[in-house]
Design a protein that fits this description.
The complex is a heterodimer of chains A (182) and B (511). By secondary structure, chain A is mainly α. Chain A is 59% helix and 0% strand. The radius of gyration of chain B is 22 Å and the shape is globular. In chain B, helix 4 (127-141) packs across helix 11 (487-503). Classes of the chains: A mainly alpha (182), B alpha/beta (511). Chains A and B meet through helix 2, helix 4, helix 5 and helix 7 of A and helix 1, helix 2, helix 6, helix 8 and helix 9 of B.
Chain lengths: 182, 511
């Protein structure tokens, strides 16, 4: 895994937290997932290529401060707006006439909701519990087919040289390999 | 599980190093792993360089976003620029995209192979000639139908809908060994049942003496005139920065870095084709998804991913399948936020996510940006945009016939459909092309093979025209899109290319 040396600034974390209250379901605060969601967003940004990361970090900054220019914000940045005004600010981006602004809004929303729906508490609300399911079917698989699976996995490394149709190389150069399976 | 002894990671590097071998394979996915295994067993000394990390089966979990960061190139943030922008995903790990694909194993359609032979002059590629390569691949990756009882309800609904419409629907052939239906294919199979190259051809290559170096990014090929004699690059540190340098000198180089990175590698290395078509001819099977909400409990995650394919419209270039994805990834792709998002996500267990793959009719290109990174460019044609709308309308008809009560569309600004009568709304006004949510995982064709050095980049067996010692073995070779999942085609062509290289094996050893 490649994760760049990148951290969201304190201000950017506030922006992301405020944005999460707009784009995530209403139980965001009740579930106490703010810190975990911000961490997911940061990890996601760290995995992105530098140019994309820079663009999105800039978008977070611009989104925060562009709120100053709306009269209803009373010269406050996005993270200090009340929920209704914050939602209106986000909606301006979400339904902007400019495709690039809409795409940025979608991407920011996507990164945040992705982090939200990855939380165990949220998965439980959705009755989505794949670990239990996987443990159960994986156990049944080994009970029913364990021997055959082991046999097939051994066959994967058994010699069976490719024999060219032309026969020029006679299928193998027959060099003895110290690691070769027998 | 201990790491195989001849598989090395960044932890094994303490200084810059120079290595030598007979054959250097760049990439360890469907193309590279197969070539490496066949050549290693054939007696050649093989080194495989893989940019991604080594992540054994035990590391795969249901934490989807963590797996995306671990296994996908650039955390999945890869985009073909154009109208609309198209998100594409490729694996970056030992095993390449076979670790994260859905596990569909289909032979290349006969009509495609015939077209390649007839229109592109590809030698020895017709179905009767390719049969033995497909058979060999299918043996190692265990390509077969699912065991009974492993199919999820979303797939059964897709099948029922198709049958009600009297449309052809078939069970998928998948590379799996008694797959239990964990539905985690796209994030690494947690049981190893999906027979990716990570658990098949890579162990095979290693068993026959190949050495695999993970975390190694190849920057450029080493060349002497028109002959490729190896490659050089850097070991990647955990933060993505370049670490120790390496050079690998080889008698022959095989690039299997995929249809985006192979042309970029050639471009960075100054390899020119007489055709001038390196990086051209990008096709990518544009893909759209719909969310269909049902009244019944579906729980699409309880059973195998894509158990069936609807093939009724294959000749028109459409395939339909049910493609369950976890809530985190789904939430990112839905056109909702806040309360509306909550509403649709609360129906997650009653939702069928269905996708459509389109055999595209136009091509894009890959260019190397300053700094060496590749960038894909692709404009969906108006014709294909119309076909996406038509295909989506057919898919919606199927889902309503299966009992869907609401369908969320991949077209920005278009209201959800609430019943079969709504489907015609799709045609009431033209769909705004930049607002179509298109994605793909099938990139192909950027170093196409064929019989004419003025039209193609590689000959029929992957050797780059105008160059010695340089082969390509990945989806770059496809002269055209194939209309089905490409993994088995890549593997069969890789087997065939390896056979050709083995024919020269004695000369290579003596060189």
């Amino acid at each position: 895994m490649i994760l760049a040396d990148f951290r969201l600034s304190r201000r950017a974390r506030k922006t992301v937290a405020a944005l999460a209250r707009v784009v995530c379901p209403e139980d965001f605060d009740a579930l106490g997932v703010e810190g975990a969601v911000i961490e997911e967003v940061e990890l996601t940004l760290r995995s992105f290529p530098p140019l994309v990361r820079f663009a999105l970090a800039s978008a977070i900054w611009i989104f925060e401060w562009s709120a100053l220019f709306y009269p209803a914000s009373f010269m406050r940045p996005f993270s200090r707006l009340d929920p209704a005004r914050g939602e209106r600010h986000f909606r301006r981006w979400w339904s902007s006439g400019l495709l690039s602004i809409r795409q940025l809004a979608k991407t920011l929303k996507g990164m945040i909701t992705m982090g939200y729906y990855e939380q165990a508490a949220v998965k439980a609300c959705l009755e989505f519990h794949p670990d239990r399911w996987i443990a159960d079917v994986a156990r049944r698989r080994l009970e029913a087919f364990g021997e055959e699976i082991r046999r097939k996995e051994a066959e994967v490394i058994a010699p069976d040289p490719l024999v060219p149709a032309s026969g020029l190389s006679k299928g193998t150069l027959a060099r003895k390999k110290p690691h070769a399976a027998t | 599980m201990p790491r195989p002894e001849n598989l090395f990671t960044r932890d094994d590097w303490t200084a810059d190093r120079a290595l030598t071998c007979d054959v250097l394979v760049i990439g360890s996915g469907a193309g590279g792993a197969v070539v490496a295994a066949e050549l290693a067993e054939g007696g050649l000394e093989v080194i495989v360089l893989e940019e991604g990390g080594y992540h054994p089966t035990e590391e795969f979990t249901t934490h989807a976003t963590a797996m995306v960061r671990k296994l996908y190139r650039d955390g999945g943030a890869t985009l073909a620029i154009g109208s609309p922008p198209i998100a594409f995903q490729e694996g970056r790990a030992v095993g390449g995209s076979t670790v994260i694909n859905g596990g569909m194993s289909w032979r290349t359609p006969e009509r495609i192979l015939d077209r390649w032979w007839r229109e592109d002059g590809v030698d020895g590629v017709r179905a009767k000639e390719m049969g033995r390569y497909f058979e060999r691949v299918e043996k190692y990756i265990s390509a077969k139908h699912q065991d009974p009882g492993t199919t999820s309800r979303d797939n059964e609904l897709l099948r029922e809908g198709a049958e009600k419409m009297s449309w052809k629907v078939i069970p998928n052939i998948r590379n799996q060994l008694h797959c239990a239906g964990t539905n985690n294919c796209a994030f690494g199979c947690p049981t190893g049942a999906k027979r990716s190259t990570l658990v098949t051809y890579i162990p095979r290559a290693l068993a026959f003496g190949a050495r695999l170096y993970a975390d190694c990014r190849v920057e450029r090929l080493l060349r002497e005139g028109t002959r490729s004699v190896g490659a050089e690059g850097r070991v990647i540190q955990p933060n993505g920065k370049p670490g120790h340098r390496f050079t690998v000198r080889a008698k022959l180089v095989v690039s299997s870095a995929g249809a985006i990175h192979t042309p970029a590698l050639l471009g960075r290395s100054g390899v020119k084709s007489p055709s001038g078509r390196i990086g051209q001819n990008l096709s990518l099977h544009p893909n759209v998804k719909v969310l269909a909400v049902f009244d019944e409990n579906v729980e699409g995650w309880k059973g195998v991913h894509q158990a069936y394919q609807v093939r009724e419209f294959q000749e028109e270039g459409y395939l339909f399948a049910a493609v369950n994805i976890p809530p985190s990834i789904l939430s990112m792709a839905t056109p909702f936020y806040g309360r509306e998002l909550d509403e649709i996500m609360r129906d997650y267990n009653r939702t069928v996510i269905a996708g459509m793959l389109l055999e595209d009719s136009v091509t894009g290109r890959v260019r190397v940006l300053p700094g060496g990174r590749p960038q894909a460019f692709y404009d969906l044609s108006d014709f294909d945009a119309h076909r996406l709308v038509r295909g989506t309308s057919l898919l919606c008809e199927l889902l309503f016939s299966a009992g869907a009560r609401r369908i969320v569309l991949p077209f920005e600004g278009m209201a959800d459909l609430r019943g079969p009568d709504d489907v015609r709304k799709l045609f009431e006004r033209p769909v705004h092309k930049p607002g179509i949510e298109v994605m793909t995982v099938h990139m192909m064709g950027t170093c196409a093979m064929g019989g004419d050095p003025k039209r193609h980049v590689c000959d029929s067996y992957g050797k780059v025209y105008g160059h010695e010692g340089l082969y390509i073995s990945d989806a770059s070779l496809f002269p055209s899109p194939i209309g089905v999942n490409p993994m088995e085609t890549i593997m069969a062509l890789a087997t065939r290319n390896a056979e050709r290289i083995l024919d020269q094996g004695a000369a290579l050893k003596a060189a």
